[in-house]
C-alpha cells in the first residue's frame, strides 16, 4: 500500500499545501477564503505565465456565474496576505490579460493526512436490477463502518447516492462533497458468493492509493466489510483507537437469507411513503424471524431500530393510529438497544419515542445526546436531536444541530428541509422559505418539500402561493393526510371557507383514521377557536404525536391567549 504524500509549493517564506487547501508562513496558517487559496494555487502552478481572468474564474468557480469583481477581491486578499507591500511582489496584473505569479516556486514532497472521505455507490455488476438493494446495502454498510472511525469524517449515504453512474470527475465530486479521498468500486453477487472490488483515490491529486478485490460467501460479508474498512484506514493513515481496532478485527458471520432480508428492509425504508415504510417493516420482521438460532446477531439490532423508525414515520406522517404504532415502535426500539447498546440509530429512535410518546423531554434529550456520542459524524443522529430541540423551543440549538446534519450530508433533501423546519418553528420564515426552495431545486419531485414551503408561506400571509405549493404536495403524495389537512387550513386562512370545509369533508371520507390534530389546524384556519380546542382535547385522549409541537408551531398562535391552550402546553411537559 502506498504511503500518502503530496506536492506542495514554496516561495519566499510561504508554503502552499494544495491538499489541505492552506497557505502557511513559517509554519503558521494564514487565514484566507478557500477561493483565494484556489486562485493562488492556479497561479503558482504556472509561475512566470500569464493566466487569463476568464481562465481563473472557470477554474475556481466552474459551475457558477460570478463577476470579475469577485476575482479581483480574492486577488486583493492574496496580496494583502503575502506581504506584497503594494509592489506586486508575487502577483502582477497584466492589463487586459490577467495575472502572473512572478516569484520563483519550489516544489516539495510532504506527508499528508486525510481527515474526510466519501464512499461512492458501488456499481451492481450482476446485471440483475433486483440485486440493486445488495450493492446499495454494501455501500451503506461501508459508510457506516468507516464513519465509526473517530479520526475520519465520512460523507453520509444520501449525499453520495446522487453520484450513482455519474460522469463527473473524482475531483469535481470531491469538491462538491467536501471530501479529501474517495472510495469507489463494484459488487457482484451470485448465489451465496460475492465479489467486491474497491480502489482508494486521493481526490484533489486524482492519485490512486490502492486497489483490491475481496471475495467470499455471503455469510462472511460483515468480516469482509471490516477488512475493507481496515484497509481504507491504513491507506489513509487514520488513527484507530482500541475500540476501532477491536471492532474491525472481530470475526462476524451472518445468516445469508436473514441479512439479505435486512438489506431489503433498509432499501425500502428510504422510500418515504406509507407503502415503502410498511414494506420495510415486513422485510425487517422477516429478517429477525428467519434465523431463530441467533436472535442476537449484530445486524438484528439495526433491523429492530429500523422497525421502530418506520412505525414512528407511519404515526407521524401517514395517519396510523398512534397508540398501536408507538406500542410496536417502543418494543422494537427497546429490543434494539438491548441487543446493541452502542448502536446510535437505536438511541436516536428511542429518544424520538420518549419525546413523541412519553413527552419525557429529559430522557429524549439524553438519548439524542447518546446517539451523537456514539456516532459523531452521522447526520441522522443530529437530525433527530434537532427535532427534540426545536419542539422544546430551543430554537438556536435546533438550527445549529440541523445545520450540522446538513454539513455532514450536504445533498440530503431530508437534512436540507429539516433546517427549514427548524427555521420555521423559530419564526425565521424568510430563511425557512429559502431553505425549502434550496431543497426543491435539488429534488423537485418530493411532496414533503412543497408541504414545508406551503406551511411557511401561510405564516407570511402569501396565501395563493401557499395553496399552490400545498396542492402540488397533495398531487405528488396523494396518500398523505397531513398534507390534505394543511391545504384545508391554508384555504381557511385565505378566506376560502367553503373550499376549506369541502377539503375537510373529503379528508374525513377518504381516511379510516384522521388524527384530531388535523381537525384542530383546519378549525384554526376557519377561525373556529372552540372547535380547534375541542379537537386538541380529543388529540390528547388519543395521545397524538404532533402535540409535542404545541409550544412552537406558529399555526397555534391564535390560541395562545386561551387559558385552556396554555394548560395543554403544560400537559406535554413544557411551559407556555
Task: Characterise the protein shown here.
It is a single chain. This protein has 576 residues and is of the alpha+beta class. 56% of the residues lie in helices and 13% in strands. The chain has 25 helices and 14 strands. The model has no long low-confidence stretch (mean pLDDT 86).
Helices and strands in order, then pairings?
Layout: E1 5-11, E2 14-17, E3 22-25, E4 28-30, H1 34-44, E5 50-52, H2 53-60, H3 68-81, E6 91-94, E7 98-101, E8 106-111, E9 116-119, E10 123-124, H4 132-147, E11 153-154, H5 157-161, H6 170-177, E12 181-190, E13 193-202, E14 207-217, H7 221-235, H8 242-249, H9 256-269, H10 274-289, H11 298-317, H12 322-339, H13 344-356, H14 361-374, H15 379-391, H16 395-408, H17 413-425, H18 429-442, H19 447-459, H20 463-476, H21 481-493, H22 497-510, H23 516-525, H24 529-541, H25 563-571
Parallel strand pairs: 9-11, 9-12, 10-12
Antiparallel strand pairs: 1-2, 1-8, 2-3, 3-4, 5-7, 6-7, 12-13, 13-14
Helix pairs in contact: 1-3, 4-7, 4-9, 7-8, 9-10, 9-11, 10-11, 11-12, 11-13, 12-13, 13-14, 13-15, 14-15, 15-16, 15-17, 16-17, 17-18, 18-19, 19-20, 19-21, 20-21, 21-22, 21-23, 23-24
In a few lines, what is going on in this structure?
This protein is an alpha+beta fold and 576 residues long.
Question: Which short descriptors sum up this protein?
Answer:
25 helices; alpha+beta; six-stranded mixed sheet; 56% helix; single chain; 576 residues
